[in-house]
Amino acid sequence: MFQTANTYGITSIPEVGVHTTLPDCVIVGDWNGPSCNDNFNLNCYPEVIVDVLCACAVLRGANIFAPGILGMPHDANEGSIVGVYADLKGKCRRGYTQVFTEEKLFLGTGYVRMDRHTLFDNNASPRGIAVEMIDRISKIPNFTLPSEFGILQNLPSMLCSYMLDVNENTVVLDMCAAPGNKTTHIAALMGNKGTLIAIDKTRDKVERIKDLCDTLGLANVSAYVWDSTQAVSFGKDETENLPPLTAEYFDRILLDAPCSALGNRPQLMNNITVKQLQSYPILQKKLFRNAVKLLKVGGILVYSTCTITIEENENLVCWALDKFPELKLCKQTPMLGSPGFAQVYSVILV
Ligand SMILES: C[S@@+](CC[C@H](N)C(=O)[O-])C[C@H]1O[C@@H](n2cnc3c(N)ncnc32)[C@H](O)[C@@H]1O
């Protein structure tokens, strides 16, 4: 099931096993297929340049989709091997044909599936895979899960759902739910039974949650467009059919807050400003206040982010414990990884 193959016949079977603590987590080993680094002289390949977002996806195991390609030379024909590079400083213009001399990072090699005429002629905007990777410097393989089998997400993300300690009788709220990765995992841990309300403030994203639940056959999720900073105060809303979110209603609440996302890997470049960084704890505190109101006595609230700043993590938790003496910090179960900073420092962003 996890065999990876590309249309040119190169296959590789990464080692696959089940996580010892999380029984629904599959661990996939390194790519052990053929490697350009082992056998080839990189300089002999035409060079394809991709943007940084595309580069990150490639390092995480993706192939290269047409919109991510910035530069491809004339001698890269369909089926030829190319060296793939990231344009680290955003200097490459779309349709570039020469060897790129600005700062770039080698990502791996691949087979061309769309040549430059298909990609760039007459303002073309093709979709689909343009370069199929042979190998990646990250050694992460590409594989596709059958849609009904599940979704790919990071181990720390999976832990959040486990920490909620749900079952079919718990009434659960996911306050910032889209695109629904954790929602669907929680729904599965509830055995596709019971009540799980998923909220996100962006309509398109809520449609994605609904689609994902349909694909996975999950019937215990109700997804709504709503602003979770207003969750309690507005109560029932007729237009969205949102059920009334009354105080102390939920046994379990996940607050997977919008954040600066600095913990997502790989990060090749980040343009976030200090002003943006400073805005997140303000929003996170607004959401947290509502979460506390909605939580039943004896309930569990899991607060999570995918960032590494103390302001959005340890300091936010300290603020919450200080502000809401009724909250008690619980031991993480299951415990994977290492604890955050016990000693919280005063961080001033300037
Ligand atoms: C970190 S993402 C959530 C990821 C999601 N839990 C998952 O695992 O797929 C944060 C989400 O919060 C949503 N969001 C931001 N502000 C919000 C608000 N005030 N109310 C509800 N959702 C909000 C964003 O649209 C975004 O989808």
UniProtKB/TrEMBL annotation:
SUPFAM superfamilies in UniProt: PUA domain-like, S-adenosyl-L-methionine-dependent methyltransferases
BP GO annotations: methylation
Pfam families: Methyltr_RsmB-F (PF01189)
PROSITE patterns documented for this protein: NOL1_NOP2_SUN, PUA, SAM_MT_RSMB_NOP
Keyword match RNA-binding: yes
Binding site for S-adenosyl-L-methionine: 176-182, 200, 227, 256
Gene3D superfamilies in alphabetical order: PUA domain, Vaccinia Virus protein VP39
Active-site residue numbers: 306 (nucleophile)
Domain of life: Eukaryota
Keyword vocabulary terms for this entry: Methyltransferase, RNA-binding, S-adenosyl-L-methionine, Transferase
Domain SAM-dependent MTase RsmB/NOP-type: 151-350
Any one GO molecular function term: RNA binding
InterPro entries in the record: MeTrfase_RsmB-F_NOP2_cat, MeTrfase_RsmB-F_NOP2_dom, PUA-like_sf, PUA_sf, RCMT, RsmB/NOL1/NOP2-like_CS, SAM-dependent_MTases_sf
The family this protein is said to belong to: Belongs to the class I-like SAM-binding methyltransferase superfamily. RsmB/NOP family.
Protein name as it appears in the record: SAM-dependent MTase RsmB/NOP-type domain-containing protein
The organism of origin for this protein: Ranatra chinensis
Source organism phylogeny: Eukaryota, Metazoa, Ecdysozoa, Arthropoda, Hexapoda
